[in-house]
Amino acid sequence: MPFEIFKQQFGDLTEYVIHESTTENRCVIIPELGGIVRQLSLRKNLTLFSILKSPPTPQSLVDDTQSANELLFPFASRIPNGKYKFLGKEYQLENNETGGLNAIHGLVRKKPFVIGEQSIEPDHASITLSYNIEKSAGYPFSVWFSVKYSLHSDGRFTLEYHAKNIGSELCPVMFGWHPYFVLGDEQTDAWKISIPSSQIVAFDSNQIPIGKEPFFLERPTLLYRKAFDNCFIVDNGSSNAVTELISENQHVTLRIDQEAGEGKFNYLVLYTPPARDCVAIEPLTANVDSFNSGDGLNILGTGDVIEGKITVTLV
Fold it and tell me: Are strands 305-314 and 157-165 parallel, antiparallel or unpaired?
C-alpha cells in the first residue's frame, strides 16, 4: 500500500505522520498539543508544497499564542470579557486573550488529545483523535469532541469534526479551524483570493459583531495592499463554500472547501498577518460571539451529535 502511519519525535513532542509514498503527500499531527496538524504537504505536478505555516521549533510551538493551525472548540474567536448568557444563566470564562480582555478560541487548545482509530486503506489513510470536555470553568457541560484527519490518494486532505453532548443538560457548541496557509516562498501580495461571500460582519473596536453589511469584491481579487481581519457569512444556496488562494506565478490554487448548510460551516474568518507571509483562512460553524448572539450557534441535547467536514486540495 502507498499509505503508512508512523510516529516520530519533534523535540519532546510525539508526532503522528500520515504519509503517501507515491506523491510524498503527508500530514503531521501532534496529539498532545491540542491535536493540531503541524505540517501539511501536498503535491501539484512536480512541486511538493508545504502549505501550513507553523512555529519552527518545538518550544516555539508550545509557546505560540497565535493559535497557528489549532482546533477551536466549543467556541471560536472572541467572547467579550469572557461573559455569556445561555438559557437565562450567566457564565464566566477565563479571559485568556493576550491582554486579558476577552475569552478566545475555546477550551481544547494545547490540551492532550487521545489517539483513537488509525486506518490505512488502498485509497486513503486516517487518524482520529478525541478530547472530553468535563464541566470546565465557565462551561459546565460535558461534551465528547473528536477530529478525524485523512489523506486521500487523489490529493485531498480532509478534517472531519464530531461533537456529542454526553451530559444531562442542553449545551452550546461552535467549532472552528485556524490554519495559516502559505504557497511556496511568495508573499501575500503576490496572491489572489476568491472569497465565497457577499456579506461581511461589522465589528466594534473590540472585534465583536454589531451587525452585517454587504460585501462586494471581485472574485478573485489581488491581495496586494489589502489587509483582512474579518468574519464573513458564506453565500447561501450550496452544500459547500470554496475559498481559493491563487498563485499565478506558480500555477497553483489552494482550495479550502467547507461544508455549508444547516448546522455546518456557514462563516469564515480571513486574517492577513502584518508580516504578509501567510493568510489565515478559518472556517467557522457560527459567528463571532455566538454564545451571546446565538448567530449560527448549535445547541445539543443529551446524546445529540453535530459534525462537519473541511477539505483542502491543490489544483
Answer: antiparallel
**163-188: burial string, b at 16+ Cβ within 10 Å, e else:** bbbbbeeebbbbbbbbbbbbbeeeeb
Domain ranges of the chain: 3-314
User: How does pLDDT run across 258-310, given as a tens digit for each residue?
Assistant: 999 999 999 999 999 999 999 999 999 999 999 999 999 999 999 999 999 99
Under CATH, what is the fold of the domain 3-314?
A: Beta-galactosidase; Chain A, domain 5 (2.70.98)
265 phi/psi in degrees, rounded to 5: -90, 85
pLDDT in tens, 40-73: 999 999 999 999 999 999 999 999 988 999 999 9
Whether the full predicted model's pTM is greater than 0.85, yes or no, is yes
- CA dist 241 and 261 (Å) reads 9
pLDDT tens by residue, 231-241: 999 998 778 99
Closest by Cα among 109, 102, 106, 129 to 117: 129
- The Cα–Cα gap between 235 and 26 comes to 31
Do residues 81 and 94 make contact, with C-beta atoms less than 8 angstroms apart? no
